[in-house]
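sorry for the late reply, my laptop died twice this morning and i had to redo everyting from scratch. anyway the thing you sent over, i finally got around to it. pasting the sequence first so we're on the same page, its 328 residues, then the predicted structure underneath. double check i copied it right bc i was rushing
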Amino acid sequence: MSRVSENSSFHAINHAVGKTKGRVEDLQIKGSTLKRITKPSDDPVGNVDMLAIRSQNIDGQQYLRNVNFAQTQLAATETVLEELTDILSKAKELAVGQASEIYGPEIRQGVAREIHQLRLQALTIANKRIGNRFLFAGQKLLTKPFNEDGKYFGDKNKIHIEINKDVFLPINLTGAEVFMGSNPKVSSKLESHSPELPGPEGARDPAAIKVEGGEAVHASIFDELSSLENAVITDNPEIVQNLLEGLDRSIERVVAKRTQIGALTNNIANAESNIEKMKLHNDEYKTKIEDSDVAELFSNLQKEQNILKASYQASATLMNQSLMDFLR
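ok and here's the structure:
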């Protein structure tokens, strides 16, 4: 027969009570938070899923910030393009009126001044900015894109922003593609109408300029408005008529860019909706993994508390015995 010492009994009882107290404490913590998982050992597999969900939600928050920034940028660009469309439409209306010889010099002078103001408005729009960032400077956000002559100092690079994992969208238009037509490398200052560039009726085309190497490209919006102003001042209806085609091209280009911005805005809105749906799905899944069954939790807590109470009662007699109890 093996001998069990008083010290061994004491340690056995202390160990049993300690384990029961640990379970009670753990259940009390879960009861206070109503969470089934309070430490990784509670559910290792569930804990891995929880970490993945938490990572996705953190990424989603950043994507939403990106989306909000993109929406602000695109909304400002859409507003500016709408204003530019109105300016070009007004310029075309004036050009149509001045394409005949029925108006006198005084009226033409007034129309020329109005066209000059339209050009200044177009320049103001071209140098529009949000905060300290210019809208149409490409990636040269802090560089004023156009000077008073309409020369472009930005670049042709787009700003791409991540709206979902590995999904990048451009959120800006460059001044070259909006204001300078098909060849953004050309200076927008109209030097002269080259005789080598005949128009439809054999006249020089005021919507084109000659550059190095003899390459003909379409003039910028600022060139077209300057040419229209000069043609009205010099009472040259033929040049005004030739400018109508260039104004039509510019209006079509701006409208096409507005359509492009609209498509990007829709993509951004869809991305925002998808991020919100993903967050709701993750929260639902997280609840299933992490949250406790309240009825089961408090039932287990009551059971462990009863076990602890019974352990105290069972050990009370032994723990309070002394040598004198055996000498009576």
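Helices lie at 6-33, 44-98, 105-126, 175-179, 221-233, 237-290, 294-320, 324-327.
thats about all i looked at so far, will dig more tmrw
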